[in-house]
Amino acid sequence: MTDTTDLELAETIAQVKGDATHAFTFLKESGTLTASLIFNIAHRVPGRDVLLSVRFPSPWSRGTEVTVTASRFSDHKESVLNEERLGADTLIHAHTPHLAAWSLAHKPFPILYVAAQRHLLAREIPNHLERRVSVLETIRARLDTYPDLAPPPGLLESNGGANFWGKGIVETAQLILLIEESARLQAIAAQIGGAQVYTEGALDLQWKRTGLLEKGRSFAREFAPA
Prior knowledge:
- The chain is an alpha+beta fold.
- The chain has one domain: 3-Layer(aba) Sandwich (L-fuculose-1-phosphate Aldolase).
- The longest helix is centred in the N-terminal third of the chain and has 28 residues.
- It has a 7-stranded mixed β-sheet with strand order 3-2-1-4-9-8-7, with helices on both faces. Strands 5-6 form a two-stranded antiparallel sheet.
- The chain contains 7 helices and 9 strands.
- Strand 7, helix 4 and strand 8 form a beta-alpha-beta unit.
């Protein structure tokens, strides 16, 4: 049984490493990541007390090895993956150019681009301003205070990058690409009057395409109070 379990874990590690490498590659090649290529992953193995951490070499590193380390998930009490309301098994910390600008501005990021919004229930990415409070505590407080808001897919890291979470490494990385693309296009739109809110019915149409309409409309509030 132990040999079987070890083999299964080895196969999972190989799969996670492959998914992580693929995610890093398409985020790097699409220009989603900043030049520093800050991109770290924590993935909870379903059904096991195992957390896999994936690290990539920095651009100035002579090494090219992607490292995967395993630890007990139960030892990571402060991990945001402990918040069941998020329904997430993957946490990615990444720095992306235009979302980082919102982090620097200490403002929440409103998602006004349909290519990103159709995959998301949340309408904004909040900003983690009180960094002495953990990501987990910050998100739990938001979910407790605003149960009528859809849980966000990430949290901007004030004066830094952002933490994102979701189901699956590749799927979470895809959301990072789309949200960063939204931030880039909204920055361009700011030069010609700014990105506008969705026209009537546009959001319903987008959610209908991805099967999120009913769930999306179950949340009464769109944005947290300023």
